[in-house]
Amino acid sequence: MKNILIIDDEVNIGLLLTRFLTKHGFNVETATSGAKAMDLLNINKYDLVLCDYRLEDTDGREMLDKILAIHPQTVVIIITGYSDVKIAVEMVKNGAYDYISKPLYPDEILNTINKALETAQVRKEETVATVAEENGARKTPKAGKAIEGNLLTKNYILGECESARELYRQISLVAPTNYSVILFGESGTGKESVANMIHQNTPRKDKPFIPLDCGSLSKELAGSELFGHEKGSFTGALGQKIGHFEMANGGTLFLDEVANLSYDIQVSLLRVIQERKVKRIGGNKEIDLDVRILVASNENLWEAVQKGRFREDLYHRFNEFSIHIPPLRTRHGDLMLFAEHFLKQTSNELNKHILGFSPDVIRYFTRYSWPGNIRELKNVVRRAALLTEDGREIETRSLPLELLELNASVTSSFSEPHFEEATRVISYNRNDLKSAAQEAELDTIMKVLREVNFNKTKAAAILNIDRKTLYNKMKAMKLN
């Protein structure tokens, strides 16, 4: 039975989620504050934590750092409101598995939790298998000729726009070499996918591809994760640990958000790259390395060098080749190509036959700026597919509120179909007192929501109602 901790200062949400998840076979505990959560985390180990971003005594960002510092293998999912979506996207980059937007849908939560735990289990099994393989005899891959023809793109779909074609041209050029590569792109653009694609197109493709998210590592954990440690080498080192360099030996090591590594770790990293040898913390034996290194950052590493946050000599070691990954908002021709691909994947996963996207949904997609890029698009499609009935096409009512609100802010009126629908529902008879009262209520709710940038918690406080009541009213008016 998997153990789940729910951190939310709204007692009712904790109770509802506890009942729901307990019925589905999970062992659930709750905490209404960050302090209480830390008390539980210091005593118990949880497979997954559901944490509201806004807590009375702290926030989700701080809780994420604390949770991963104590239990690096624990899966963390952030619960967020619309106004915090961009922050939640950043937290995914820093180690959270995913985020769920309010209002909460039980089936969406269950699906996300199951997917997260499944992914964590697969990664654990892959790590164990890799360690077992790497503890055996190693063979250095022989230099092979450059891979000819189209890119090998197992599990990936290629875009068709001009910037995508240029991206794949650069991948095909650098992949067959042993060059170190810097991948630069916004969060969610698919840097790990590009790194994996490079690995698939090298003579090392049958060797391990080992990713490490440096953004989720504290200074204390980074050395152990990168280089490994021996039993008893420091407090808490209860056994021997194989580092990511050893795991990747013979293959490819991908360091995501490498600029977040501390200066001390950068010094050690440079030494390992120069000498092509690694020594576990607390150990005496030097281990020979044959590892190709790919690194990624969502900020310009050269600018980090100029600001003194990243070593220039390490930068030049990495910068044998660099690739810029374009954001989704500039890849107009690829948007629906990716959306259809994710819909097909999710339909197969859910055992549904979903007919596609309605014209209104396509219009919302093309107008939205996608701050979370391809990762956000995938999450939106997965959520919408879950909420869509079998044999139907995805409609606007299955989209998260932030996509719908964009169009409302552009027109500053109820001209968009989503809001026209709500207006038609309550305005069929202006001479009817009940309809007039509902229309006035809708007008007031929308006015307040716009004033607080669609932060439903603040809107509920201004309207002098609780959040649940606001959600129910918005649902009745088809604003969810």
From TrEMBL:
Response regulatory domain location: 3-117
Q: Which stretches make up the Sigma-54 factor interaction domain?
A: 157-386
One biological process term from GO is:
phosphorelay signal transduction system
Keyword hit for Methyltransferase: no
**InterPro entries annotated for this entry?**
AAA+_ATPase, AAA_lid_NorR, CheY-like_superfamily, Homeodomain-like_sf, HTH_Fis, P-loop_NTPase, Sig_transdc_resp-reg_receiver, Sigma_54_int
Against PROSITE patterns, the record matches this protein to: RESPONSE_REGULATORY, SIGMA54_INTERACT_1, SIGMA54_INTERACT_2, SIGMA54_INTERACT_3, SIGMA54_INTERACT_4
Alphabetical list of SUPFAM superfamilies matching this protein: CheY-like (SSF52172), Homeodomain-like (SSF46689), P-loop containing nucleoside triphosphate hydrolases (SSF52540)
SMART domains referenced in this protein's UniProt entry, alphabetically: AAA, REC
Q: Which UniProt keywords apply?
A: ATP-binding, DNA-binding, Nucleotide-binding, Phosphoprotein, Transcription, Transcription regulation
Where on the chain is 4-aspartylphosphate found, per UniProt?
A: 52
**Keyword Heme carried by entry:** no
**Single GO MF descriptor:** ATP binding
Pfam families, sorted: AAA_lid_14, HTH_8, Response_reg, Sigma54_activat
**What PANTHER family does the record tag this protein with?**
PROPIONATE CATABOLISM OPERON REGULATORY PROTEIN, TRANSCRIPTIONAL REGULATORY PROTEIN
The protein depicted here goes by the name: Response regulator with CheY-like receiver, AAA-type ATPase, and DNA-binding domains
Give the species: Solitalea canadensis (strain ATCC 29591 / DSM 3403 / JCM 21819 / LMG 8368 / NBRC 15130 / NCIMB 12057 / USAM 9D)
